[in-house]
Amino acid sequence: MAAHLSQRLGHVDEAFVVRLTRLVQAAGLPTVGPDLGADRYLQLMRGDKKSEGGDIKFVLIGDAPLAAGGKGPGVPCMKGAPEPVVREVLAACVR
Prior knowledge:
Layout: H1 2-8, H2 14-26, H3 38-46, E1 58-60, E2 77-79, H4 83-92
Antiparallel strand pairs: 1-2
């Protein structure tokens, strides 16, 4: 989910997400989460230690959008994301 959110925010490209997903699958790890519904995921994330005053901070791949001169994969960052984008990623990454 972090890779998909990072892509949606312009930090990495689709090819990176595909490569990372294949690597995770090859290791036998899950690449989708249970379908708890976006509201439940957001509720759980708001109680996370990375949440500040109810604002969720995400660990993203890449330090800044590539279009803005970001360094891309390999430089993690923590920042917020628009809720509609988070909901779209959640919907795409559950079974």
